[in-house]
Specification:
Length: 391
């Protein structure tokens, strides 16, 4: 928890001085860091203020994964940081909005302002509301720390009229007192509120596991991954919807997107020279056959998200492997085959088969100097083991 009064004190000149000192000791042992900071603060700060400074310094360290260089200037709460959108994903969303000429947006449940600062940074007139006064204070501080314009206030999102704004954005909280919930009716605001928003120009961030059948007709569902990790799905409504399903992948090379309009379909084929492992966003979007078509290939199995092709391709939508050989699937014969090849270190990837890689690796009792990657999956319904080389 972050105490509101202690956080407001951190924004004063005296608080900022203590926060800088906390940043200097944040990597120390927690008890040692607290002792050093209390010595630095002397009688000018009480224990709650010292704790607030140390908490912010620690959260800034953790936030680098999501916010990069911006983290050192921002403010957080523990749960707010956990729920905040990664900066590259938020920047992509803001770029989509600006491409549609969005001039103003209301963020209904802005949290600590992760998306709000992306909207404001893109030049969109931005306002946010949240039920939690601490989060509102933190979001306001983040806008100021990054020299961005915007307004934030404490309010119930369900009582706010979004009509004055071009676009409404919502990121419903998916946690209850019992922890994370997968029931959309337990969201805050609930699914009924989300459905109402989706009748106008809007964007709603949802969990990547949202069932396709829950997406209303005419609404675009976009699954987004950041460096191979699926982070979210976003529902785009009104004039912002351009297709039914979209997979967007963000990596070191930039951003690439694939839609259902790129999907002519693909059938099941025999194992070919190359194997492709589609990105999680592609799988969630149901666009594995679009990847197969893009590499002039087909599926190993109609129910498994592996693609095979005789041709080598570099694609942002899948990891590529060269198939070296097919090994026995039965464990005893597989163990003998790996020993014969001198494989002592083995990466095991599996899809569609009842295999626990860590347990299997232990039972294989590997011995040798070579390293390899083994894919265990189904081919046309039958268990198969493929020795592959990452490209």
């Amino acid at each position: 928890m972050v105490d509101l009064d202690a956080f407001r004190w951190l924004l004063t000149d005296e608080g900022q001085q203590l926060l800088r000192a906390a940043d200097d000791v944040a990597d120390d042992d927690p008890l040692r860091a607290q002792t050093k900071l209390r010595r630095t603060a002397g009688r000018t700060a009480d224990p709650e203020q010292v704790a607030a400074a140390l908490t912010q310094a620690a959260l800034r360290r953790r936030a680098v994964v999501k916010f990069g260089d911006l983290a050192a200037r921002m403010y957080f709460t523990p749960d707010g940081l956990e729920q905040a959108t990664r900066q590259p994903v938020a920047a992509h969303r803001a770029a989509r909005l600006t491409a549609f000429g969005t001039a103003s947006i209301i963020d209904l449940g802005c949290g600590i302002g992760g998306d709000l600062i992306a909207f404001a940074g893109a030049g969109i007139t931005s306002a946010g509301v949240d039920l939690d006064p601490v989060r509102v204070e933190v979001a306001t501080a983040n806008l100021a720390a990054l020299d961005l314009e915007g307004a934030v206030m404490v309010a119930d999102a369900t009582t706010v009229d979004p009509a004055p704004f071009d676009v409404a954005f919502a990121d419903p909280a998916r946690r209850t007192g019992r922890g994370r919930t997968f029931d959309v009716d337990d969201w805050t605001p609930p699914w009924s509120f989300v459905e109402g928003l989706l009748h106008r120009d809007s964007c709603v961030k949802v969990a990547p596991g949202i069932p396709h059948g829950l997406v209303p007709e005419g609404v675009e569902a976009e699954w987004v991954s950041d460096h191979g990790e699926v982070k979210e799905a976003a529902l785009w409504a009104g004039r912002l919807a351009t297709t039914a399903r979209r997979a967007t992948v963000i990596g070191n090379g930039g951003l690439a997107t694939l839609t259902d309009e790129d999907d002519p379909g693909a059938g099941v084929v025999d194992v070919a020279r190359f194997l492709y492992e589609p990105d999680g966003a592609v799988i969630r979007a149901g666009l594995v056959t679009a990847v197969a078509a893009g590499v002039d290939g087909g599926l190993l199995d109609e129910h498994i998200a592996y693609v095979t092709s005789e041709r080598p391709f570099t694609t942002p939508f899948a990891r590529s492997y060269e198939v070296l050989e097919q090994l026995p699937y039965r464990e005893k014969a597989l163990k003998a085959a790996l020993r014969e090849r001198g494989i002592g270190r083995l990466t095991i990837k599996k899809r569609g088969v009842d295999v626990v890689p860590e347990q299997l690796r232990k039972r294989l009792a590997l011995a040798g100097d070579d390293e390899a990657t083994l894919v265990m999956t189904r081919v046309a319904g039958h268990g198969t083991a493929l020795l592959v080389r990452p490209l």
